[in-house]
């Protein structure tokens, strides 16, 4: 896919189409936005700051994903995603899932520069964009497939950008996801709550997939650093994981499918 001549992004200021000119994307009203050296496009307005995951978080997630422990989720998503039309991955992170999706035209949106540098450097099949997922630089009714893995669903924006036959795929942690990791960290383990959307889109189906992977100490620590548990338990958590040494961990995902 060539993202120079037939790009479907719009100007975040005036909502007119953007076209690429050298290292910038410009609209007819001469609003201009820069491509980073890695190739992602910065469409954040100056007033808002990049607040996404930092480099340590991105490195931990990359190290963990490279173990292949979540590949079964990626493979499953690829079977569900249409191989035509435009795809938007909202909260794409470092592009682990986005890069594999079979669509000809893909856009990945995230607020983390560190994640997008990694994504753009490793995946030329997608145009990555620094942007909030709650204010998307995409025209109404243009996207056939919207995907969000492990991030809040931007329901109003998704409803706006989807074509009439479009779908939204929302991946959330299943009740038992990372149960054994939580057992190491906490005295009492609570199951993850169900995060099905109650309004804004039409619910179609949920696919539940599970797998168990073996994690050595390094993998446990990478995994821990990419979860919210790291914020809550900090160094104490790392000590407990080192003590545990290794573990078999359940990965469980709910893949919710919605229509417009
Ligand atoms: Zn403009």
Label this structure with key terms.
single chain, alpha/beta, globular, eight-stranded mixed sheet, binds zinc ion, 260 residues, Rossmann fold, three-stranded antiparallel sheet
Largest β-sheet summary: 8 strands, mixed
Instruction: Supply the CATH superfamily name.
Output: Vaccinia Virus protein VP39
Q: Which small molecules are bound?
A: zinc ion
Describe the global form: globular
Name the CATH class. Alpha Beta
Q: What is the C-alpha radius of gyration, as a whole number of Å?
A: 19 Å
| Percent strand | 25-35%
- Give the neighbour order of strands across the main sheet: 4-7-6-5-8-9-11-10
* CATH architecture level-2 label: 3-Layer(aba) Sandwich
pLDDT average, as an integer?
92
Separation of the first and last Cα atoms: 26 Å
Number of domains: 1
Predict the CATH topology: Rossmann fold
Structural class: alpha/beta
């Amino acid at each position: 896919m060539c993202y120079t001549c037939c790009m479907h992004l719009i100007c975040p200021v005036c909502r007119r189409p953007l076209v690429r000119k050298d290292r910038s994307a410009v609209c007819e009203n001469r609003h201009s936005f820069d491509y980073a050296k890695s190739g992602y496009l910065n469409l954040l307005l100056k007033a808002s700051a990049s607040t996404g995951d930092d480099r340590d978080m991105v490195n931990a997630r990359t190290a963990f994903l490279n173990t292949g422990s979540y590949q079964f989720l990626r493979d499953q998503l690829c079977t569900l995603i249409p191989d035509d039309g435009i795809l938007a991955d909202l909260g794409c992170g470092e592009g682990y899932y986005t890069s594999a999706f079979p669509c000809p035209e893909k856009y990945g949106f995230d607020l983390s520069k560190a994640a997008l540098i990694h994504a753009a450097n490793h995946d030329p099949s997608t145009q990555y964009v620094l942007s909030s997922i709650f204010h998307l630089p995409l025209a109404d009714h243009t996207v056939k497939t919207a995907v969000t893995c492990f991030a809040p669903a931007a329901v109003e924006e998704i409803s706006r950008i989807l074509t009439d036959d479009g779908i939204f795929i929302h991946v959330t942690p299943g009740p038992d996801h990372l149960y054994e990791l939580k057992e190491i960290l906490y005295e009492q383990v609570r199951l993850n709550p169900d995060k099905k959307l109650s309004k804004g889109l039409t619910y179609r189906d949920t696919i539940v997939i599970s797998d168990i992977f073996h994690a050595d100490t390094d993998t446990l620590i990478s995994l821990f650093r990419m979860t919210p548990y790291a914020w809550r338990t900090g160094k104490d958590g790392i000590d407990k994981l080192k003590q545990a040494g290794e573990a078999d961990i359940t990965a469980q995902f709910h893949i919710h499918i919605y229509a417009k």
